[in-house]
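Researcher: Next sequence.
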Amino acid sequence: MNSSETSKHGNSHEFRHAANSCESSPAAVPRVLLAGKLTALEAPGGGEVQMSALARSLGEVGTEARLWRPWEQRLSDYDCLHLFGSEPEHLSVVASAHRQGVPVALSTIAWFDLASCWREPWHMARRLAACGKYLARKTCPRLDSWRRRLYHAVDLLLPNSQAEADQLIRHFMVPAGRIRIVPNGADTRFAEASADHFAELVGCRDFVLCAGRIEPRKNQLGLLRALATGDVPVVLVGDVVPGHEAYLAACRRAAGPHVRFLGRLEHDDPLLASAYAACGCVVLPSWFETPGLVAIEAAMSGVPLVLPRGGSAREYFGEHAAYVAPNDLTGLRRAVCAARTRGRSHQLAELARRSYSWRSAALATREAYETLL
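Model: Next structure:
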């Protein structure tokens, strides 16, 4: 967005809010709409949980936040639009919001990694193209792309970590002043669940829990191969992402009799919290996580964590978790076995409850909104 467009959008937004200020008290509650991609509920994941949880928690910290229903709600009736995820379809939405004088914040939920591009289950030409785009972006951050246009069009970017913010600056030349870091969160109810219900369902405790959408980036197949020998019980919670059914079939072929596939649990299902309470460790063998809602939810109860080196998990948990390369099957098995004997960490639980509750995330998000309003 060029300087004349910025001036135009800014002036219309200031004019609208000057008019609103005449009609409301100085302590008027900010009104915000939250939205993700149109097909988000086809295979809901962490981004959708983040959006819904923030919508609830923002209300508790003095912000009127609603999920946007575009056929019923006019953008111009609200003070800010908050988008979730780096999606090309957001470009037209941002342009429409600016035409109506509404500023836009974007939770980028993005990570850029050469190894993960190469490991995607695409045909060779597409993988080479993806790797080429990554290297071109890294070498020439001024290179035009829909991502660069999106990141420069929105008024404020809200990455979940400093590592993610650094990538936005390095790969897309986003000015640091237009970035506010908002850590991800989890519900504190995960700290107090009973293990009994889930343990009765699967018939054991202290199992290895891997929760998340089943797709190559999550690397469930690598975990199953790493634990193929021996009788360590493994429970996979999650549905396959549409289009990756062949990957699920490969996971089932690699799974021994000690592996259970349970499918997706709704985020507010008490069984999910019970699973964290009953397991011996939580493993995210992904190529990267930013840092992964599952990791934060599990950390609420201090369960041992085995997390990927790629992404921002270390920035969140430091020495309170183990980190492995997803293609190091020996290292992955060793880390899982060590985690199961380590026991729960009071320090990890305290860190998660203090720093990564949804209330903390909502307060940081509200402060970000205030820089726009």
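Model: Confidence is low (pLDDT under 50) at residues 1-26. Residues 226 and 278 are 22 Å apart (CA to CA).
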